[in-house]
Amino acid sequence: MNKNTSKKSIVSSKNNYDLDLLQNMYKKMLLIRRFEEKAGQLYGMGKIGGFCHLYIGQEAVVVGIQSVQIEGDSVVTSYRDHGHMLACDMDPKGVMAELTGREDGYSKGKGGSMHMFSREKGFFGGHGIVAAQVPIGAGLAFAHKYNGNKNVAITYFGDGAANQGQVYESYNIAALWKLPVIFVIENNKYGMGTSVNRSSAGDNLSDRGKAYGIVADIVDGMDVIAVRDAALKAMDYCRSGKGPYILEMKTYRYRGHSMSDPAKYRTRDEVDEIRQNSDPIDNIKSILVKFGLKDESLKVIDTEIKSIVGNAATFAQESLEPSEAELFTDITIN
Amino acid sequence: MSIEILMPALSPTMEEGTLSKWLVSEGDIVNSGDLLAEIETDKATMEVEAVDEGKIGQILISEGTEGVKVNTPIAILIGSNEAPHPTIKKIAENPYIEKAILPTKNKDKEILKTDSNSSFITVREALRNAMAEEMRDDNNVFVMGEEVAEYQGAYKVTQGLLDEFGDKRVYDTPITEHGFTGVGIGAAFGNLKPIVEFMTFNFAMQAMDQIINSAAKTLYMSGGQMGCPIVFRGPNGAASRVGAQHSQCYASWYAHCPGLKVVTPWSSADAKGLLKSAIRDPDPVIFLENEVMYGQSFDCPDDSDFTLPIGKAHIEKSGKDVTIISFSIMVGKSLEAAEILNDKGIDAEVINLRSLRPLDTETIINSVKKTNRVVTCEEGFPFSGIGSEISAVINENAFDWLDAPVTRVTGKDVPMPYAANLEKLALPQVDDIVNSCINVCNKS
After folding, report:
1. Domain A17-313 is in which class?
2. What is the pLDDT of residues A184-198, one digit of tens each?
3. Residues on chain B bordering chain A, Cβ-to-Cβ distance under 8 angstroms
4. Distance (Å) from the C-alpha of residue B139 to the closest C-alpha of chain A?
């Protein structure tokens, strides 16, 4: 058996996956997981205030999709945004320092968990109002089309947002004007405490694009390979000028809606079942092992990630609070 | 039998129109439903149908006549077998035609040159010129909104833009304010410079979340990274006889919010100069026009570099006895009031705020120091209105200079009624301004 055949049998995809790529995706997912755990810990210590929505459990979605991002693409999401920022290669120190409300945070401490941005990395927020980012994403796509470039706008929103009217206003406009936007529905099964079944009529959220003629795929969002494959297909479609695309990611969040959510609306067993059988990080780890990655190498990665997160946490606590003069800056440009 | 066919009112604010084309001739037999003429209103060109049957006995207003007032007889319908009535007055003697206007077909001829550097144009034309000039200068400027392209604008403000700039720069949107406002904001985040037209600001309430939470606040929340260079424009304030949902001044709603600039032009020069500044501005600008003002003409500089600074008020009339502070359509009413006051021996100063946020407090305070008396004037509701804010600013900065309490003239604290008499009562009138000024001048 030659090397290529053996890889194919490990990763069931028609796309090419080499060890480097898989390892990088694993690192990103692990970074998000450890970062979020640390954020949860700092929240418990009172170092992070307000709302803090953790992404634990959903890592494969953003990492799989962002793995096919090219220079110039734009990304926009909701308030559950830390993972997206890390996947866009934003500095964990700057993200954590924003969570602690310090001057070295991405928004100088004035935005907080839900409101962070990096034009440099193509990350356009971080939006606190459910579904408000969806027309904004369509607008970013409009700018790409207007400028005649091949870039796309990747627009993430949750199953809860999928019931907001402005999502459908955006679908309509995006389809009419053939905007290069990928609508990624992160269906983690609960909009705060209400399950999809109790809030959303119809079988699949992705079906709702049919009325506008928008192509949609349903994807196992716990499998980073499946996510990446779907993203490649969607990106090709969008970049070739055919208009918008919907990807419904079936995923799951392990933690509550926010840090203050006791999550009594589901059983412990439900969460444990998914953790044990479908954890996205365990999934890719087992593939890496099949690729021949040794325990020692995995440990090296673990240590590296822990150190990045530890440094970010230290940095975020040592960074100063913004100066009082910052209260009155950045209200308008002139 | 002899029936007068009258110039019809074809829009809520139409007071006069152009009889652009007759589709029948004298002697033609018409049935009810037949097309008689094309009439150009302040909003569109419309066809007029016959209501009664008969023969066109005489055409009273020739085609091409502008400024034909609503209810003016435009033709006489007689019985199918009758001969034209000999005593019918000719156009020149027609008492309904107040001004003899020669037929013109070329729109450009309408623009009367007042001097070499300015033209007497409508507010509508000034707004359109401002957009067209900025679009010629900057490829990133584009227009989107309901009926702005193929329909040429619900109020004809965007007329001709599609023809000149094409469908890559002028976009008809679906009737989904929340969605297209968000799309505009996203495009602005993506470094374009959208001009988003709301058919009226009443409908912008559908998009309030995007305007406030996304456009106004994101710069601050991003520590200065996410500028949003966008203009939201359209008619604001009372229209005419359209009831409570379509007649409201939103000035104080937007002026309340940090992160927005709020601009309120009155004249054609205001409209052009301020809109050009708004389009060039790197921040989100709420540009509150007024439907009733669209058809009014003023001198307006031709210069394509003419702009007016946002945040600077203008003293329209200087005076020493009382300061009237107003904006938008109320500037005209304030000037009318000042004329009446002049006859009564009161010399009023009239300030046109032009912009509400930032508010030109310096001009206000300096005027208070001169006149010691202030009447504010706005169409909006009194509670938490612009007048309330001005009153607070004066209290905080010039209390010792006041000889009388600051007095507010505002719309009444009621939803806008439909009935003509009640609507008039609900809106601030020239007499209200005059009386308030007399009152504050009698107190010392």
Report:
1. alpha beta
2. 999 999 999 999 999
3. 142, 168, 171, 173-174, 176, 178-192, 209-210, 213-214, 218-227, 258-259, 261, 281-283
4. 10
Smallest CA–CA distance, residue B192 to chain A, in Å, is: 7
pLDDT in tens, B40-55: 887 778 888 888 889 9
Measured distance CA(A56)–CA(A53) in Å, rounded:
9
Q: How many CB pairs under 8 A join A and B?
A: 152
How many Å apart are CA A19 and CA A293, to the nearest integer?
9
> Where residue B83 falls among pLDDT bands split at 50, 70, 90?
confident
CATH topology of domain B314-442: Rossmann fold (3.40.50)
* Separation of alpha carbons B37 and B19, rounded Å: 7
CATH 3.40.50.970 for the B116-301 domain, yes or no: yes
CA nearest neighbour of B375 among B308, B442, B423, B290? B442
Query: B2-93 adopts what CATH topology?
Result: OB fold (Dihydrolipoamide Acetyltransferase, E2P) (2.40.50)
- Contact (CB, 8 A) for B238 and B427: yes
Q: Does A16 touch chain B (CB under 8 A)?
A: no
Sheet holding B297-301, edge to edge: B112-115, B118-122, B297-301
Locate the domains of chain B by residue range: 2-93, 116-301, 314-442
Q: What is the pLDDT of residues A54-77, one digit of tens each?
A: 999 999 999 999 999 999 999 999
B47 part of the active site: no
Q: Could you give the ipTM of this predicted complex?
A: 0.91
Residue with tokens 């990274």: B225
pTM for the structure as a whole: 0.89
B402 Cβ contact partners less than 8 Å away, ≥ 6 residues apart:
B368, B372, B373, B374, B394
B314 is catalytic: no
Q: Which A residues 146-165 touch B at CB under 8 Å?
A: 146, 153, 165
- Condensed to tens digits (0 to 9), the pLDDT of residues B114-142 reads 567 999 999 999 999 999 999 999 999 99
